[in-house]
Amino acid sequence: MKKEFPQKGLDLERIKKSLEVGNNYISEDAVFLGYPQSTPHPLGVEILAKYIQYNENHVGTFTNKNMQLNMTRQLEKELIEMMGQLYGDEDVDGYVTSGGTEGNIMGIWIARNFFEDNVCLVKTDLTHQSVDKACNLMKISEIINIPYTEKFQMNINSLKENILKKFSIGIQKFIIVCTVGYTMTGTIDNVEEINYLLQELEKQYNIKFYIHVDAAIGGLVFPFISDSEFAFKYKYVYSISVDPHKMGYIPFASGIFMCRKGMQKHIEVPIKYAKTVMDKTLISSRSAASAVACWGVFNFLGKNGFKKILQDLIRLKEYLIQKLEEKQLAMVISDPGTNMVCIHFINTNNGLLPEQIEKKYVLDGFYIKYQEEEIVCYKIYIMPHVTKKSLDNFIKDLENTF
Ligand SMILES: *Cc1c(COP(=O)(O)O)cnc(C)c1O
């Protein structure tokens, strides 16, 4: 029977009974391994719970306002300044979004309007499907899928060839989506080399480029682990999307979108009921609470705090890899600078795990091309709720099945 909208409100006790926390949240020996979600940072939960009741609407963008802002808006502005500094440009614009998808749509929307027409979008087969959604929404039909290398990064030689091929049929504007932390492998595109190639191509052929960086996974990982330059340090990077509800340990729904100063003007629309204000965001009404939660947790942790969490997670990941390899259970792909691994299990039925293991550890297998072959892999995210003991249980379960 389908649930009906009740004529008369239900008894409160009955409602509460239905809402008792289910066992998808608490479980004895199962561990959530397959997705980048975790128990949020307790301070994030506390802040969110505190601010949600005031129901403050953060409609608009605050980084381009010089006037006195109310307290939560001021904090959001500071948050974007902090993130801008971390990513190589303190002077960026941006706002707190609902997640990585919104940031990717924003970036590609701005890029498409910035170039006006005749654009081609460049990505790889590993690029997140939110970029496909953006192409569909923007009616971008010229799309190139660049092959990836054996290290699961965009192949730069092929990028050059493909751009020149399109250029020869009259396309002069390219949106390049670079991923810092692919969802399936955790690997990163080499933005530095790509940026350098684009610079050469612009010099030689006057081709125009816009790089959007999808850093949903890696935006709160790589800047704390690696010393190399990031995102806005590179000329052609105009926008970036980050996901605090993944490696930022903030409750859903929290994302951050940032772009070069003033770029949001390419998508702005007047607000009919507020004459002097322009709307420059994808979502209109949004909660102040996520912005304040990000501000609070990021300031509490600092760069050192993030680094410490990641070092511990990466150590646990190395432990898992060592066990898997020692017992010859799997072949592993992993960037040393991340807390995630992509695993191909050897000795199983085409690389597939038995259903009960998939279920217990919330794992989903997928096909990925590796050395000219399609193989089944699983991704594992080592997040703060994962313990050494839970990984030992996982290994034991694997040993018992193979
Ligand atoms: C998760 C993810 C997204 C989408 O983010 P949502 O927060 O789910 O909207 C985009 N890109 C990458 C690489 C991701 O991993």
UniProtKB/TrEMBL annotation:
UniProt entry tagged with the keyword Lyase: yes
Classification via Pfam families: Pyridoxal_deC (PF00282)
Keyword terms of this UniProt record: Lyase, Pyridoxal phosphate
UniProt GO BP: carboxylic acid metabolic process
Cofactor field: pyridoxal 5'-phosphate
N6-(pyridoxal phosphate)lysine modifications at: K246
Listed GO MF terms: aromatic-L-amino-acid decarboxylase activity; pyridoxal phosphate binding
Family named by the database record: Belongs to the group II decarboxylase family. Sphingosine-1-phosphate lyase subfamily.
Protein name as annotated: Pyridoxal-dependent decarboxylase domain protein
Organism: Eubacterium ramulus ATCC 29099
